[in-house]
Write a structure and sequence with these properties.
Layout: H1 4-16, E1 38-42, E2 45-48, E3 53-56, H2 71-81, H3 92-104, E4 110-114, H4 117-132, E5 136-140, E6 153-154, E7 164-165, E8 178-181, H5 186-195, E9 199-204, H6 220-231, E10 234-238, H7 251-254, E11 261-265, E12 275-279, H8 281-284, H9 303-319, H10 322-342, E13 348-352, E14 355-359, H11 368-371, H12 376-388, E15 391-392, E16 401-402, H13 409-427
Parallel strand pairs: 3-15, 5-8, 5-9, 9-10, 10-11
Antiparallel strand pairs: 1-2, 2-3, 4-12, 6-7, 11-12, 13-14, 14-16
Helix pairs in contact: 2-9, 3-9, 5-6, 10-13, 12-13
Organism: Tenacibaculum piscium
Modified residues (N6-(pyridoxal phosphate)lysine): 266
Protein name: Glutamate-1-semialdehyde 2,1-aminomutase
């Protein structure tokens, strides 16, 4: 397998693009080597500029849940394109997609479409502050909620301390109202409430996907919601990644909790840039033009994204692939564990619905600190071996793998063979 054209494009891209990429993870920094440049995709497969074809377990980090270029989504997008690209005005499809989304989430009466998951989250946090009249937000270490200043933070030395900026260019003042807690640890949340009386709410991914797949303890979310209600604070659930991936709706429902504010993205645009935040009427009344919390966007509710989203969710509901997703994820988990055992490689596998990934550690992973015990050098070797055996993975130990309903039995056999060869390569390090 050769990557000559990708290497050539990488060098060319360095001239006018930052690191030759437009999102850092694409640079392959954590796995070494040059990034791959993609030419096309169809169904469960993706093809790079060197004409290497892979089974795609990245799926644009989640939204291609039906596989690439599904015929019904393609048809809907083509039809929408004939009518225009953007109007800066309302369209009927915004209303149609809003109903589909609200009907899928108990506790969501109204939704506002935006252009990205980051925008959805920053708007959801602003809404929580507007509704409660309080300023501070608690987030969990290892949960990623976009690149807005207030959430690009790392934990301080103590659970109840204010956080420090986790990126250059983020002033301390931008994060002074952000507090860090430990995922799956309710006591770390309570410690903040004992120290502060102005906490508007807590934001989390119901299933973490950016420290690898990390699943909450049984009743963690229920107990968190009950505690927040006793404190007059809101639960903000970031389902940008998990929305419609474990059921038709949100992971929160499977976990027995209803968010006060839900943030969405990825799947609801069918591959186009889109995000959304929604809540019950009482909370959404705060949003302009109904209330005093201002948020706007010229391209929000873009007609092409709305068409792609309606077609994707309509087909997803028809297929109802969720039992199949669980079965497939379990099969991949077994591939990983059996192969790791065969070659005596330490691996822990986490999965939920259509999200799965291995951690190269012998530690059970329930939070970010435990995820960081993973051997990233072993993952890098595993990653490139998978690539060379025809399986496209996220180029990071700390990213979830995603499944599409387009995956076939033949694909799974190829994934199994690739995993075996990749584990063998790791064992020889």
């Amino acid at each position: 397998m050769e990557f000559k054209k990708s290497q050539k494009l990488y060098k060319k891209g360095l001239i006018n693009l930052v690191g030759a990429v437009n999102s850092p993870v694409r640079a392959f920094s954590s796995v070494g080597g040059n990034p791959l440049f993609i030419k096309k995709a169809k169904g469960s497969k993706i093809t790079d500029v060197d004409n290497n074809t892979y089974i795609d377990l990245v799926l644009s980090y989640g939204p291609m849940i039906l596989g690439h270029r599904h015929k019904k989504v393609q048809k809907a997008i083509t039809k929408a394109l004939k009518n225009g690209y953007s109007f800066g005005a309302s369209t009927e499809n915004e209303i149609k997609l809003a109903k589909i989304v609200c009907d899928a989430f108990p506790g969501m009466d109204k939704v506002r479409f935006v252009n990205s998951g980051t925008e959805a989250v920053l708007s959801g946090i602003r809404l929580a502050r507007a509704f409660t009249g309080k300023d501070k937000i608690i987030k969990f270490a290892g949960c990623y909620h976009g690149h807005q200043d207030a959430l690009l933070v790392a934990a301080g030395s103590g659970l109840a301390t204010l956080s420090l900026p986790g990126s250059k260019g983020v002033p301390e003042g931008a994060v002074e109202n952000t507090l860090i807690a430990t995922y799956n640890d309710l006591e770390s949340v309570k410690a903040h409430f004992e120290a502060h009386d102005d906490i508007a709410g807590v934001i989390l991914e119901p299933i973490a996907g950016n420290m690898g797949v990390v699943v909450p303890y049984t009743n963690f979310l229920k107990e968190l919601k009950t505690y927040l209600e006793s404190k007059g604070a809101l639960l903000i659930v970031d389902e940008v990644m998990t929305g419609f991936r474990s059921k038709f709706g949100g992971a929160q429902e499977l976990l027995g909790v209803t968010a006060d504010i839900t943030c969405l993205g990825k799947v609801i645009g069918g591959g186009f840039p889109v995000g959304a935040y929604g809540a019950r009427n009482e909370i959404m009344q705060e949003v302009a033009p109904l209330g005093g919390m201002y948020q706007a966007g010229t391209l929000s509710g873009n007609p092409i994204a709305m068409a792609g989203g309606i077609a994707t969710l309509t087909e997803l509901k028809r297929q109802n692939p969720y039992d199949k997703f669980n079965e497939t994820a379990q099969v991949i988990e077994e591939f990983l564990l059996n192969s790791a055992n065969k070659y005596k490689v330490d691996v822990t596998v986490n999965r939920f619905g259509s999200m799965v990934n291995p951690f190269f550690t012998n530690v059970t992973v329930t939070n970010f600190e435990q995820a960081q015990t993973s051997d990233t050098k072993k993952f890098a070797t595993f990653f490139w071996a998978m690539i060379k055996n025809g399986v496209f993975l996220p180029p990071s130990q700390f990213e979830a793998w995603f499944l599409a309903s387009a995956l076939t039995k033949k694909d799974l056999k190829k994934i199994a063979k690739a995993i075996d060869k990749a584990m063998e390569a790791v064992s020889k390090m």
